[in-house]
## 1
Amino acid sequence: MIKKKIFVDMDGVLVNFQSGIDKLDETTKLKYADDGNGKSHYDDVPGIFSLMEPMPGAIDAVRRLQKMDYDLYILSTAPWGNPSAWADKVAWVTKHLDDVFHKRVIITHCKDLLAANDDAFLIDDRTGHGASEFGGRHIQFGTECFPDWSTVVDFMKSNIAYRFKANKSIGGFPNELIIEDDNIIYRTFSAIVKFKYNEISSVSVDKHSLFSDIIIKTNGGQNIRIDCFSHSVAEKIHTLILSGLEDHSQSSIDFDPIDS
Ligand SMILES: [Mg+2]
């Protein structure tokens, strides 16, 4: 199975930018407080990136994502007018997370150039430098949906463990299952279709920005909602159920519930 990739931004995500500003002496702070247009330009202070502390929970969260078997890379931008920032960023990674990101640092102003599909994620607090055009899914850090690292970790955990929910138990199937790979999804839903296909009145996909739900309605008035944390998996299951509905000769298929 190919590992899913996560690209992680640095400033405001892994790195607490303000903690670097706080360590500057007053003269330097004053010098970079205004770029002449009323905006601060602290990212031009030589060496500032080496002073920064990790964001709360960032180090632990990244190690947890690595344990979940994601393929992790840094995807960061460094200020063009401050060449020491480029080196400082690599030094920061080496100091704090070399075990995860050794030789896995990409510094670019064009984050959209990466070849990424639905199975790749970008954790970034901004939309600029191509982040919003990233080919995979952009998890915008610091927003209402993903305010901190624990929310991100929970989401990424859900993403690898697909969850199946029904509003009540159907014929011995538990009403919530954790499904951990595509093969098991296939077998599980084949079994459900086999068990209930003649009672299903409709199947549809409800697509959200980051995930999709499949809605199955039964003749008996049940609504079964399947949370799929990947659009492609939702499409696969949807197709599978539709084909199961067409194929009334489907015979028994093994069903392996997994403990959540
Ligand atoms: Mg950032």
## 2
Amino acid sequence: MHNLALAISQKSGYQITGSDDEIFEPSRSRLEKAGLLPKQFGWFPERITPDLDAVILGMHAQKDNPELLRAKELGLKIYSFPEYLYEQTKDKIRIVVGGSHGKTTTTAMILYVMQKLGIEADYMVGAQIEGFERMVRLSDTAKYAVFEGDEYLTSPLDPRSKFHLYKPHIAILTGIAWDHINVFPTFDKYVDTFRQFVDLIEQDGSFIYFQDDANLCSIAEHARQDIKRLPYSTPDFVINDGVTSVIADGQHFAMCVFGKHNLQNMQAARLACQQIGISAHDFYTAISSFKGASNRLEKICQTDNAVAFKDFAHSPSKLRATVEAVRLQYPDKRLVACMELHTYSSLMADFLPQYDHCMEKADVAFVYFNPQVIEHKRLVPINPDDVQRAFATHNVQVFTDSAALQDALRALDYHNTALLMMTSGNFNGVNIPDFATDLLVPGFIKQKKLDNRYMRMARIWAENSYCTRRQVGALLVKDKMIISDGYNGTPSGFPNQCEDENNVSLPYVLHAEANAITKVARSNNSSDGATLYVTASPCMECSKLIIQSGIRRVVYGEQYRIMDGVELLKNAGIEVLFSSDK
Ligand SMILES: [Zn+2]
């Protein structure tokens, strides 16, 4: 909802207010920044007045919500979130991506290509995607709207699937694999909601669907005659040295993403883009730099012989696709796959058989679930044997204790290995990127803790600076010893003032890292091979000095306007790390 509020507030002529009983981060700060955070949390029917144009209801609103009751009493126009998205885009060409899996990725691919080609679009996507500030955008100017179409119900008050409200001109369905068993108790009911979605395509619209899915083929066959049917499958591709290239019109396009499921999503996105006049060549050229939606096969660490990925997958179809993708991309590596049964559906005893053979392509397969979560969700208890039987392959080992799982992972050798960590949770409190990196690069976590401590010391050292606008501190550490320190300031003989009246640094101010490096040069010590801790990213001039001084590692604590200094350091082969820990 807060994404919608921010999106509408960007349009001219709209005044937005909102209520909620609780507002969490990051919504809270983002609303505050936009001046939209309510002064008090809770429900205030007196705020609902006859002059309101519309009231938009969040999906968690209760029937007896006092503001809702007041709005009904006044006869105000009340919309659900999906209804309002339609209302705002009813004169635009709407592209809607549905399916049990791959919707976020496919939506992100379409938006990515449109953005690269300078085609403006309104959008709503279910997860934060790189290069897009928000999850919702609405404008007066865009001709197109691209929505991720979720089959889940609109709200407890409106039992329609959300994607039934968007009425697409161009509809995509990526596949149907039973999910949300709590609201779709049978598979037939689940398929039916997709059939209705296709019925709601606008006159003479297009239906893009995955042709290897029998249910989708049946839906397409029985669809209205005016609807243009556009089936797709896996494109031709080759894999060389861990890089997947799609072959189109005899040309190879090297991609950042991999896995058959991603290439299939790419075909859906290509057909949608084709419908709005984008050529295959332009599409493939643009999509080649697409790195994937966040949380989907996100590469968290790579060494010269091992690689680790994190993925949000938990449902059977996503799990299978993700494991197979990594298997295919790295045929010669040992595949260690670790997953957590975490969502409501995945922990239901009746649903477990859907996981049949899902992880068979992994050499080592660890499955974790937390019995306390099952208790908390008030589900029928399951035991490790049930889970083992459901997966039905010998490679699977089941854990119910996170510490035991971590020990088992630590006991493995990761030479020539692809590691895959899959969950929508965190294996009961594991920092997945740090943990996985530590498996591939032993000592990583220890070094990170050490780096954070030195960085805290550099921050304290910065307090010596009499610069008012920006205090920067630096430490040089070699062989576990602090060999030098520095903070920004003016050389002796100059006034004790770092900034002019416009708060711009005066040219004679010496930077913290330059002070630390010149100080060590005057001592018996040498900065050769040392690590530099500096609280702000080094500038170009300091970076040159860092390279000349033989420093091997630079850890910096804050990104400063222009990052060309950091780029220079990286190009010179210096290990550069950003420490966000405060
Ligand atoms: Zn500098």
